[in-house]
Amino acid sequence: MIAVILTVVLLSSSQPAMSTPSPSLIVIAHRGASGERPEHTRAAYELAIDQGADFIEPDLVMTRDGHLVVRHENEIGETTDVADHPDFAARRTSRDVDGVLVTGWFTEDFTLAELKTLRARERLPALRPASAAFDGREPILTFDEVVGIARDASARTGRVIGVAPELKHPSHFAALGLPMEDDFVAALERHGLTGAEAPILIQCFEVGTLERLKARIDAPLLQLMQADGGPADRPGVTYAQMATPQGLAEIARYANVIGVQDLMVMPRDDAGRALETSPLTDNAHAAGLKVAVWTLRAENVFLPAQYRIGDAPADHGDLTGWLKAIYALGADAVFSDFPAAAVEAR
Q1: How far apart are CA 73 and CA 4, in angstroms?
Q2: Rounded to whole angstroms, how far apart are CA atoms 51 and 30?
Q3: Burial of residue 293 (number of CB atoms within 10 Å: 0-12, 13-18, 19+)
Q4: How far apart are CA 20 and CA 61, in angstroms?
Q5: How many helices (H) and strands (E) does the chain have?
Q6: CA 244: distance to chain centroid?
Q7: Do the Cβ atoms of 193 and 147 come closer than 8 Å?
Q8: Tens-digit pLDDT profile for the chain (346 aa)?
Q9: DSSP label at 65?
Q10: Which of 328, 337, 332 is nearest to 303 (CA)?
Q11: Distance CA 122, CA 145 (A)
Q12: Distance (Å, rounded) from C-alpha 25 to C-alpha 227?
């Protein structure tokens, strides 16, 4: 029953008033409390839960031996100490990932056992030196381990902690003979997370992955979109097209929620100031879709100009004011690197 209460906000057909933040707005901890601890680590997830987050978010990529592990990207040079391991030096390479040439070390070239010898580090050390102080302490997690963190925390806190996994580059992994969707569904079945009321919210930028998952499971699905580009598995289709009323009606066939970059609901001018609200939130609600906005961060470099404090990119601006502006649009959920601020602003 608690799971029903947790997920009803995102799945209910009734819509909140557009000008009033929902008191049940969902806070999703983006890679954990990743503004304060290295992302995707146990410390980041547990801190986010202690701060009141409703969901924790793991990004999922594949290992060479077919395990789902939690990293921002399949390239791990930015987020681990792999460069400090001489035995892995020869594995540095360049690879096309969804049409972009990337150089570094890739999870698909490592077994799970090998990845477990690495330690996580802060991805943005210049902006987040306090988080970087925790570098080198924690291993890479598997998806199973993150589900376990959420379940243990649910038992400890008495409230259900949801998991919001994002499947990263599924077409890329499928082309390598690593069927991410199959392994993911098998994991959901192991953990009893395939039902419509399961405390899970499954995300992907690709369309086909979500369409196929819709046919296999009943769990809530979220179509990710950003201000530019389009899904890797739909050449010629842009996210801007998908954000039109016609595109949203198409998304509603297979997804429950759209996850949109903040620029899509509140564009910015050339000076970086947030402009008038776009109609996207209202149009999505009219199509029967909930709206989750990503990613709300405290540092000036990420904030609209009118919410910055001072000139230093790493200094914290008025995140609370920015959160409240997004909430006032009628958003149903937000992704934030600073879940304590998101919960407090709610």
Answers
A1: 31
A2: 13
A3: buried
A4: 37
A5: 14, 13
A6: 23
A7: yes
A8: 334 444 544 544 333 322 333 457 999 999 999 999 999 999 999 999 999 999 999 999 999 999 999 999 999 999 999 999 999 999 999 999 999 999 999 999 999 999 999 999 999 999 999 999 999 999 999 999 999 999 999 999 999 999 999 999 999 999 999 999 999 999 999 999 999 999 999 999 999 999 999 999 999 999 999 999 999 999 999 999 999 999 999 999 999 999 999 999 999 999 999 999 999 999 999 999 999 999 999 999 999 999 999 999 999 999 999 999 999 999 999 999 999 999 999 9
A9: T
A10: 337
A11: 20
A12: 23
User: Which of 135, 162, 167, 124 has the alpha carbon at shortest distance from 146?
Assistant: 162
Rounded-to-integer distance, Cα 4 and Cα 27, Å: 16
**Longest C-alpha distance within the chain, in Å?**
57
Going from the C-alpha of 4 to that of each of 19, 106, 219, 280, 281, the distances in angstroms are 26, 38, 12, 27, 24
For the chain, how many residues are written? 346
8 A C-beta contact, residue 63 and residue 143: no
Would you say the pTM of this structure is higher than 0.85?
yes
Report, in this order, helix, strand and coil percent for the chain, each rounded to 5.
35, 20, 45
272 phi-psi bin (left φ>0, alpha ψ -120 to 50, beta other)? left
- Beta bridge partners of residue 232, listed in sequence order: none
Q: Which residues are catalytic?
A: 30, 72
